[in-house]
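Repro:
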Amino acid sequence: MNETVLSSVRKNVCTVTLNRPERLNALNSDLLVALRSALDAANSNEEVSAIVLRGSGRAFCSGDDLKAFEEQSKSKQETHAFVESIQDITRRIVLGDKIVVGSIHGWAVGGGLEWAINCDLAVFADNTRCFFPELKWGMFPTGGVTSLLPRIVGLAKAKELMLLGEVFDASEAKEMGLAWRVVAESEAYDVAHGAAEHIAGLPKRSILMLKRVLNKTHQLDLEQTMQLETDATVESFLDPETLKRVRTFGS
């Protein structure tokens, strides 16, 4: 049986790989549990100084697995637990002790795009394509991006990206400040790992304090934002209109 998340350590860098390539690494409950465990292990491992987050196969992450939507929306309690598990990944990326470098390729959609934005640095392959599909399906963005995204791209642009849900590419992501570098797909992981190795070679205390200080200014705001997102996402999952729209997926 394939593991939904893989983890390995080399040169004080932990590579965490989303591993549902047959579903373009779409997130479901199993993947979320495995990813939370992998990030917890990396953040608590004293031999690890940086993390690389990537996806296997043709995509980084295609967002929520809509084929599992009806299971995710059985009841308000189950939906709330599922959405909180998504937000827990953001807490571990943004508020964890280790620098996280994203190696992003192929599709980075919805929750996948949100996790790319959560990374401290994100290397985008030149074949990366991104968009926010949530509102199209009657859902709501998570990952703290309703706070983080306007700070990066501006309020008007953030509204455009979320309301229109249009696809944008890696070069546009770099222009907006979402991507640190854009490289060929074959180079993306090596560039991300190289950056993580450089960071791992810096004094651990300085890295930790830099991340804490940079995040401190919006930590409370981020938690408040994610609570509002969670409430809105739970309500949207339970809206009959959302189920009606999701059932058209793939048709």
